[in-house]
């Protein structure tokens, strides 16, 4: 459904002699199969939204090519637009208009008849638990309802490929969980291919068949969440030992099966491959050495660990450095706000 | 039936209806928009009574002189603020959502222009009706033609304002820019007083102001004689500015990052 090769997007900062190119996207290759749910993960400023905007024909690539739903994003932009649904970070409906009118007008711009759009709109309202809100203004809806309305507008023409740009940003945890259910149903009930950008690790983990990680405009990984986590050198084992004289012993015992062993306060931590199998023998060793454990925790690697392994930085650090390097960042996009560049 | 022209007209009308629906939610803005020229008519018009007979080449009362100028002023000022609404739409993501539909970019602009023109037409009719009540004299055909010129210039200003809005995407930049453009336009167009009253250098300067020709054209049209050179020049300038602004607006709506 999506094939991109060498996508590049270059903006310019400054003016005149100080004009300097910034590669927001620096050569992205992507392949998304029909029916796949792909999470596009990266810190703010990594190039997620810029890549997405090129794929949905809002931004012409500086270099490279992409075919979306079988059509070229530059030369067959209208056919691409007809085939995809796009839900941007900002939504896309007037906050002071009636929700039903907005959805119908949006649907009719795809050439659908009024009757068909109304029938389809009401069906989607029902499916996304917006019953009774047809007449309500979006400004009088909750954040979750408003987001679901945006998704209704994006699905009104029954696209087979749906792009969601940070769909749950700004929602409370309950609304996020609720929206996740609806996003999951896009594939299970409608057979849609879904490409969603997010900077939430748990969101990418929970929703995606495959996760593509982008950092500084380049794809740094593309695999299932489990395979990506397997790239991290094992599970994190955390031993809590209060007795000072026993902590060194605990460290030595853990070091015999772990890497990256460190001591911090009362805690001894290390990375252990297949920790589930190794823990019983570790506990026996510790008991044999008369080490009194206060607690033991085993944590599976997170996508943050994956990002750290792949880039040497945590996602949060990357976001912080992206913000510092790019200056002010538009709150609705990860494109840097550039002096002199057309806004 | 789905020829490109039909699709274009249909898409433009969908955008127009959507925009008009938003305007009708708060029709007070139509009245607020016409308040400025109405106040000029009521409070400035009577001041012209003792001097209107001294205006070179003009044979009519003060309201017959003033209403054509106020019509053009309405077209200029009212329509030039259309871009502020577009910036708000852009912030809400409405523009972007429309740009990922198959609708042509030109239809997205034309739908909005139709809304601006519909609003301007209502305001122009209110102003003309009030002018007649105050004592304005003008042939129906001439006044109708004057309103058409007003719509042309209003459409031009609305298209330019939309283009400016999508280029700057900032009210803080738009407001001083519009002020900077509007002030010389107002002073050099002879909207309130004929430029022929001024010294030669001022008259010569105003010759370079297209809106002056349009104001003169609307004034000539009101007399009912549509064959004057003033009407011809006014119509030519209004049509040229409309075409130019439409081209600019369409180009900006088509642009990659609009």
Proportion of residues in helical segments of chain B: over 70%
Spatial order of the strands forming the largest sheet of chain A: 6-7-8-3-9-10
What is the C-alpha radius of gyration of chain B, as a whole number of Å?
Answer: 19 Å
**Unreliable segments of 5+ consecutive residues of chain A:** 324-343
Question: Which descriptor suits the 3D outline of chain A?
Answer: elongated
Number of strands of chain A: 14
Mean pLDDT of chain A: 84
Q: Name the chain pair whose interface involves the most residues.
A: A-B, 32 and 31 residues
Gross morphology of chain B? elongated
Order of helices and strands of chain B: HHHHHHHHHHH
**Cα end-to-end separation of chain A:** 30 Å
Strand content of the residues of chain B, in percent? under 5%
Mean residue pLDDT of chain B: 89
Poorly predicted regions of chain B are none
Molecular structure report:
The complex is a heterodimer of chains A (343) and B (258). Chain A is of the alpha/beta class and 343 residues long. Chain A folds into two domains: 2-229, Rossmann fold (3-Layer(aba) Sandwich), CATH 3.40.50; 234-299, Alpha-Beta Plaits (2-Layer Sandwich). Chain A has twelve helices and 14 strands. In chain A, the strands form three sheets. Chain A has a six-stranded mixed beta sheet, with helices on both faces. In chain A, strands 2-1-4-5 form a four-stranded antiparallel beta sheet. In chain A, strand 7 (161-165), helix 6 (173-188) and strand 8 (193-198) form a beta-alpha-beta unit. The longest helix of chain A is centred in the middle third of the chain and has 16 residues, at 173-188. Chain A starts with a strand and ends in a 17-residue tail after the last helix. Chain B has 258 residues and is an all-alpha fold. Chain B has one domain (4-46, 58-254). In chain B, 78% of the residues lie in helices and 0% in strands. The longest helix of chain B has 30 residues, at 105-134. The model of chain B has no long low-confidence stretch (mean pLDDT 89).
């Amino acid at each position: 459904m999506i094939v991109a090769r060498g996508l590049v997007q270059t903006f310019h900062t400054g003016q005149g002699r100080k004009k300097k190119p910034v590669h927001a996207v620096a050569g992205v290759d992507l392949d998304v199969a029909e029916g796949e749910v792909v999470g596009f993960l990266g810190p703010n400023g990594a190039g997620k939204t810029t890549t997405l905007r090129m794929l949905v024909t809002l931004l012409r690539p500086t270099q490279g090519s992409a075919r979306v739903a079988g059509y070229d994003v530059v030369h067959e932009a209208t056919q691409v637009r007809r085939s995809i649904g796009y839900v941007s970070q900002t939504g896309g409906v007037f906050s002071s208009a009636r929700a039903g009118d907005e959805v119908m007008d949006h649907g009719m711009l795809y050439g659908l008849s009024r009757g068909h759009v109304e029938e389809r709109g009401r069906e989607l309202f029902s499916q996304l638990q917006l019953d009774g809100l047809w007449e309500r203004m979006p400004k009088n809806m909750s954040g979750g309802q408003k987001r679901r309305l945006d998704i209704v507008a994006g699905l009104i023409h029954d696209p087979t490929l749906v792009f969601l740009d940070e769909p749950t940003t700004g929602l409370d945890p309950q609304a996020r969980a609720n929206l996740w259910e609806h996003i999951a149903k896009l594939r299970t009930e409608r057979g849609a291919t879904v490409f969603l950008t997010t900077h939430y690790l748990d969101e990418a983990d929970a929703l995606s068949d495959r996760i593509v990680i982008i950092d500084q405009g380049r794809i740094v990984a593309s695999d299932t969440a489990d395979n990506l986590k397997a790239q991290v050198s094992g599970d994190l084992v955390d031993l809590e030992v209060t007795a000072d004289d026993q902590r060194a012993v605990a460290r030595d015992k853990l070091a015999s099966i772990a890497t990256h062993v460190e001591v911090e306060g009362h805690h001894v931590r290390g990375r252990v491959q297949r920790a589930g199998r190794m823990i019983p023998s570790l506990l026996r060793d510790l008991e044999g050495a008369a080490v009194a454990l206060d607690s033991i925790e085993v944590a599976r690697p997170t996508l943050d660990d994956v990002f750290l392994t792949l880039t040497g930085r945590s996602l949060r650090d990357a976001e912080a450095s992206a913000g510092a390097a790019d200056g002010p960042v538009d709150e609705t996009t990860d494109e840097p706000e550039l002096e002199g560049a057309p806004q | 039936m789905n020829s490109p022209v039909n699709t274009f007209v249909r898409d433009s009308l969908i955008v127009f209806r959507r925009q008009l629906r938003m305007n009708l939610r708060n029709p007070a803005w139509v009245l607020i928009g016409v308040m400025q020229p109405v106040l000029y008519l009521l409070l400035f018009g009577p001041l012209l009574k003792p001097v209107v007979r001294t205006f070179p080449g003009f044979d009519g009362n003060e309201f017959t002189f003033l209403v054509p100028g106020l019509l053009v002023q309405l077209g200029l000022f009212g329509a030039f603020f259309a871009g502020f609404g577009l910036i708000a739409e852009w912030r809400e993501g409405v523009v972007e959502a429309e740009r990922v539909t198959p609708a042509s970019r030109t239809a997205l602009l034309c739908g909005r222009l139709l809304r601006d023109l519909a609003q301007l037409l209502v305001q122009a009719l209110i102003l003309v009706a009030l002018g007649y009540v105050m004592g304005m004299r003008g042939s129906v055909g001439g006044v109708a033609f004057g309103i058409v010129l007003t719509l042309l210039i209003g459409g031009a200003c609305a298209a330019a304002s939309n283009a400016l809005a999508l280029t700057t995407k900032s009210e803080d930049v738009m407001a001083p820019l519009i002020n900077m453009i509007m002030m010389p336009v107002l002073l050099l167009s002879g909207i309130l007083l004929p430029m022929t009253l001024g010294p030669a250098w001022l008259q010569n300067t105003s010759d370079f102001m297209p809106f002056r020709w349009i104001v003169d054209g609307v004034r000539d049209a009101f007399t009912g004689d549509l064959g004057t050179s003033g009407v011809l020049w006014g119509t030519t300038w209004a049509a040229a500015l409309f075409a130019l602004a439409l081209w600019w607006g369409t180009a900006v709506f088509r642009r990659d990052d609009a």
